[in-house]
Write a structure and sequence with these properties.
TIM Barrel; 6-stranded parallel sheet; 10 helices; about 45% helix; about 15% strand; globular; Aldolase_TIM; EC 4.1.2.14; 2-dehydro-3-deoxy-phosphogluconate aldolase; Aldlse_KDPG_KHG; carbohydrate metabolism
Length: about 220
């Protein structure tokens, strides 16, 4: 798969999702019911972050037991993380930032991947390695929509998945930007609801969010 085809596949996947929940799964037994709750609410493309010891097993369990879920790995920080994600067989990978070594490894990988950027220089590095779809992180803290619009001037063909400070209240505003393919965030699965097993509540948040974005 060429760099262009990987990016197009990722862009199509993100565009179909519009909203990608950022999942930090602390307990393995939460993985499958959480994924089922998200899917029931119309949210199928899931980012399982490598922030906990159970992340890889959680992603594996979701892939095995929730066939309607489309699983990716987030918080990829280095080439070893990228290799773990690719070996697991997930559909995509995302990073909060990127290093030259990671960009080089990702360019050689078969895994559709979005590096994280917050500045024009970081975006130039990503584009130089063939990544025209990137994660804008931390979106609100890095200047918000004004910063994204500023980047659109010198980089009109770049596409973004903003994450960081995105919520139910502002997701629609971000998605109305012409260069935004999807948004990411954790508001779809509040930690308190995950800890208490309030799966119906999570489904309700997802259903309400998706209906608000697709009236």
């Amino acid at each position: 798969m060429t760099a262009t085809s990987k990016q197009e596949k990722l862009a199509a996947l993100f565009a179909s999702a519009r909203v990608i929940p950022v999942l930090t799964i602390e307990r393995l037994h939460d993985a499958v019911p959480l994924a089922k709750a998200l899917v029931a609410g119309g949210v199928r493309v899931l980012e399982v972050t490598l922030r906990t010891p159970v992340a890889i097993e959680a992603a594996r369990a979701i892939m095995a037991e929730v066939p309607d879920a489309i699983v990716g790995i987030g918080t990829i920080l280095n080439a070893a993380d990228l290799d773990r994600a690719e070996a697991l067989g997930v559909q995509f990978g995302i990073s909060p930032g990127a290093t030259p070594d990671l960009l080089k490894a990702a360019a050689a990988s078969t895994l559709p991947y979005a590096p994280g950027i917050a500045t024009a220089s970081e975006l130039m590095q990503a584009l130089a390695h063939g990544f025209g779809l990137v994660k804008f992180f931390p979106a609100e803290q890095a200047g918000g929509i004004k910063a994204l619009r500023a980047l659109a001037g010198p980089f009109p063909d770049a596409r973004f998945c903003p994450t960081g400070g995105i919520s139910e209240a502002n997701a629609g505003t971000w998605l109305s930007e012409r260069n935004v393919v999807a948004v990411g965030g954790s508001w779809l699965c509040p930690p308190a609801d995950v800890r208490s097993g309030n799966w119906e509540g999570i489904t309700g948040i997802c259903d309400r969010t998706m209906k608000s974005l697709n009236p």
